[in-house]
TrEMBL record:
Stored Pfam families: MOSC
Species in which this protein is naturally found: Ilumatobacter coccineus (strain NBRC 103263 / KCTC 29153 / YM16-304)
GO molecular function, one term: molybdenum ion binding
Residue span(s) of domain MOSC: 22-170
Protein name: MOSC domain-containing protein
Amino acid sequence: MSTPRGSVIAVHRSHEHGFSKQTVDEIALLPGLGVDGDAHMGAQVKHRSRVARDPNQPNLRQVHLVASELLDEVNAADFSVAPGDLGENITTSGLDLITLPVGTTLRIGDCLLSLTGLRNPCVQIDAFQEGLQGAMLGRDDDGRLVRKTGVMSVVVHGGTIRPGDAIDVSFPPGDPIAMEKI
């Protein structure tokens, strides 16, 4: 079996808590923290709903990745979603992100990310475009719910990421563990 490889289409960050992020030329990743200058950067959780429950829990959502193929899918269904609109930090191409197991590492340039779980499509998606939240959910062949809104990760090794960078995938040892929403 060949190791999957993808690429970075665009990178995004926002200094403020909001839904979408601005597209930038590059992002700097800081180990154990996330995207430099992003509102969600930190060792402890920064997502407001999670902070309200327990501000001391670890931040397993330091970097959010979304596949450009998802954007193509929803745009073909008459939505209008551009890279960064879903609040992701990295828009990718060529990888089926949501099927990768927990602990998969993505090497992007000098950076190393470890996947922690799936983003749960929240009601903010419908506030962005009515009906979009439903388009972010599906069912697999066994009828199980599929969350398509990308994956979350932590920064193992920092560096700079730019559009066009290659993404090399390494699977964790042992039996794969499917990602759950985090």
